[in-house]
Amino acid sequence: MDGALCAAPAHRRRLVLGASGSVGSILSRWARALGATVIGVAGTAEKLAKVEAGATHAFLASGPELSTKIRAIVQSGVEVVYDFVGKATFPLGVAAVRDGGVIAAIGAASGQPPAVTEQMASRGIQIRAGGTPQYVHGGTVAVATEQLWDAVRADLFGDLEVVRYRFDQIGGAHADMESRRLAGLPVLIV
């Protein structure tokens, strides 16, 4: 979603809402390895340890004054918010992002995020949404795939559990993802 993820300068600050999920866990670890300060948010206390393992700072979504705690770390706000949750966390993303920043609305586990408000427009906040093919296509697929495998070979995600599904179990994999029962990174074995 953010083209600068693969070359994030050390001054970049990212907020990952839903940082304990599969993609959120990968994103947090990768951005941190590239020098970004990653603020990760977990939905439950049981998921906090997973977020702590990948983020520079980890918080519970239900924690008191969470936006104040985030702004204490990054007074002007984070450059990018990656929101894997949607409607429930969207207000936090708006409060945490800097003026002119980007909210990458990647998931909607709690429902679709609301439309851009007048206040967001006046702050210059950009909303990026949609599927991966909008951002990774054509020649960028090979580059993105190579960078991902380089990160895997560098063992950036070695602490994450892998859940394997045979090709004939793909329906079960989708059901586990939709019901949020997936406990690790899904890998399809052909």
Describe the structure.
The chain contains seven helices and eight strands. It is an alpha/beta fold and 190 residues long. Helix 2 (45-54) links the parallel strand 2 and strand 3. The chain is globular and about 50 Å long.
Key attributes of the depicted protein:
globular, alpha/beta, disordered N terminus, two-stranded parallel ribbon, 23% strand, 190 residues
Compute the average pLDDT: 87
Question: Which class best fits the helix and strand makeup?
Answer: alpha/beta
> Oligomeric state of the chains?
single chain
What series of H and E elements makes up the topology? EHEHEHEHEHEHEHE
Shape designation: globular
Helix content: 25-40%
How is this fold's topology laid out?
Elements: E1 13-17, H1 22-33, E2 37-42, H2 45-54, E3 57-60, H3 66-73, E4 78-83, H4 90-96, E5 97-105, H5 118-122, E6 126-129, H6 139-153, E7 162-166, H7 170-178, E8 185-189
Parallel strand pairs: 1-2, 1-4, 2-3, 4-5, 5-6, 7-8
Helix pairs in contact: 1-2, 3-4
Summary of the model, kept short:
The protein is α/β, with parallel strands linked by helices and 190 residues long. Helices cover 35% and strands 23% of the residues. It is globular.
